[in-house]
């Protein structure tokens, strides 16, 4: 059972691997041992830096090739159609560029949305996007739709920095995807997408970490995570 937000979380006082307090996401009210939390935080920071270095070493042509492989796999995995809302993302820091796939899905009738941070340390909103939409700089200078209608997503495409054998995602450390998915009334189809070197044995998942249902890697491999 998820606990309500604690006062330190509301005040933005407590810091962690993902910066905000996750006391509201503790399982059955059981806290994580502080030493364990600190050790996991250090491990994840080191893994993020390792994987970011691998991204930086990737050539533009290699990144484009991996993006194309993922897009081709997603075309088979997600049938874009009228009435389907897909929450994707705007690529930053060497993430796979799925904007051509997003455009194709839109042209096939699907609604496309992008994550927008409305408030730090809170779930994101998904705002409608379409090709040619005016964009502005959001929090942390991530491009977001200049004007957007908030929608609920049927499919969430989550960028992976790392992916472990159980389907848990290593992201940029903000905790926004976990927080957002935990706050939704129903779980959408959640698909992680990452480079072909993103796999790792474990991220040492914490109680608030939410696994991917499926993942697509830069070599086109599709992984179904049984949970």
TrEMBL record:
Top-level EC class as recorded in UniProt: ligase
Family: Belongs to the 5-formyltetrahydrofolate cyclo-ligase family.
Catalytic activity: (6S)-5-formyl-5,6,7,8-tetrahydrofolate + ATP = (6R)-5,10-methenyltetrahydrofolate + ADP + phosphate
Taxonomic superkingdom: Bacteria
A molecular function (GO) term: 5-formyltetrahydrofolate cyclo-ligase activity
Cofactors: Mg(2+)
NCBIfam families the UniProt entry points to: MTHFS_bact
Alphabetical list of Gene3D superfamilies matching this protein: NagB/RpiA/CoA transferase-like
Keywords, sorted A to Z: ATP-binding, Magnesium, Metal-binding, Nucleotide-binding
GO BP annotation list: folic acid-containing compound biosynthetic process; tetrahydrofolate interconversion
Coiled-coil region(s): none
Annotated protein name in UniProt: 5-formyltetrahydrofolate cyclo-ligase
UniProt-listed Enzyme Commission number(s): 6.3.3.2
